[in-house]
Amino acid sequence: MSTLAASPTRTLQIRPLHAALGAEVLGLDLSQPLADDDFRRIHRAHLDHHVLVFRDQRITPAQQIEFSRRFGPLQIHVLRQFQLPGHPEILVVSNIKDDQGQPIGLGDAGHYWHSDLSYKEKPSLGSMLHAQELPAEGGDTLFANMHLAWDTLPAHLKQAVQGKRAKHSYLAKYEALRARNPWRPKLTEAQIAEVAPVLHPIVRTHPETGRKALFVSEHFTTRIEGLPDDESQALLGELFAHSVKPEHLYRHVWQAHDMVFWDNRSLMHLAAGCPDHLRRRLNRTTIEGDVPF
Ligand SMILES: [Fe+2]
After folding, report:
1. How far is CA 119 from CA 94, 140, 197, 198, 200, in A?
2. Residue 269 a catalytic site member
3. Which tens digit of pLDDT belongs to each residue from 164-200?
4. Is the full-model pTM beyond 0.90?
5. Edge-to-edge, what's the strand order for the sheet holding 165-168?
6. Which of 15, 194, 207, 271 is the most buried (most CB within 10 A)?
């Protein structure tokens, strides 16, 4: 009989987290090469659960970028000043200030419900956030399942939005955020040109699963094409309120070394915020998606 103990093998496990959305990925080390079979399972699970939480990932920024690229080309955020030095594909999301009192990252990212980069002609397929430093309290991220939001939308609202498009603008809330957080840089002409508003269908079809989803958000959607202002505002208000009903939500409470990968075509998300004096820092990559249809 051999005296050699079997080497500890880790088996990839995907465990649903919540009824509305989300699954945990266990037994996978993303610092190691990813087998094609494991990649296929992860890809499928991402489509099924919309948020994947990879626990305990000790990976470098370069490894996060490499894993992200398996899903598509990466997008570079318009606020270049918050790129991780040496890695333009990584946006630093943080409330930490350096010795000169300058923010090291985007500190108020996501304080309104949104889908990342919905203001681009090709919004994001998905985003990955890798926890670097987590506060002792607060800092949760909430996700809303926009397929459920569409499926459960009352018939009169479905009818009201069917075939309509809405405008998405990065600039819509930018000045309001700047007034609250003066460290937000004034955008240059070139940056403003890079984020010109776009129109997207209010009901989009997921390009990989064919499922329909509501695609409007409090942060970036400013109005519905072809409706008078007051009607547009009233209808958007109803859609926003319906989207974030508690039964559509999953709240992610971060654990050390979590890496979270969500589908921006299926979800909106919101940063719950944490007390100012607590440090929070995460590295984000964003994968480019398709033109919504
Ligand atoms: Fe975001």
Report:
1. 22, 24, 6, 6, 9
2. yes
3. 999 999 988 887 788 777 777 788 888 888 888 999 9
4. yes
5. 198-201, 165-168, 221-224
6. 271
Beta-strand relationship, 23-26 and 13-16: antiparallel
Report the separation in Å between the CA atom of 4 and the middle of ligand 1, taken as the mean of its atom positions: 49
Share of the chain above pLDDT 70, in %: 96
Tokens found for residue 264: 């921006």
Residue 67 has pLDDT above 50, yes or no: yes
**In 10 A of CB 143, how many CB atoms?**
25
Within a domain: 5? no
Question: Would residue 230 show up in a list of annotated catalytic residues for this protein?
Answer: no
What is the span of the domain harbouring residue 119? 14-288
CATH number for the domain that contains residue 134:
3.60.130.10
93, 57, 36: which is closest to 285 by C-alpha? Answer: 93
Catalytic, out of 116, 130, 206, 252: 116
The SS3 assignment for 62 reads helix
> Which neighbouring-strand residues pair with 145?
267
> How far does residue 116's CA lie from ligand 1's centre (Å)?
5
The DSSP line for 119-137 is TSSS-EEEEEEEEEE--SS
Tokens (6 digits) for 56: 């305990």
Q: Which residue has the tokens 């959305």?
A: 21
Q: How far apart are CA 276 and CA 28, in angstroms?
A: 34
Question: Is 9 inside any structural domain?
Answer: no
Q: Which two tokens stand for residue 164?
A: 């309509």
